[in-house]
Amino acid sequence: AIRMTQSPSSLSASTGDRVTITCRASQGISSYLAWYQQKPGKAPKLLIYAASTLQSGVPSRFSGSGSGTDFTLTISCLQSEDFATYYCQQYYSYPTWTFGQGTKVEIK
Amino acid sequence: EVQLVESGGGLVQPGGSLRLSCAASGFTFSSYWMSWVRQAPGKGLEWVANIKQDGSEKYYVDSVKGRFTISRDNAKNSLYLQMNSLRAEDTAVYYCARVRCSSTSCYAHDAFDIWGQGTMVTVSS
Question: What is the pLDDT of residues A8-34, one digit of tens each?
Answer without folding.
Answer: 999 999 999 999 999 999 999 999 999
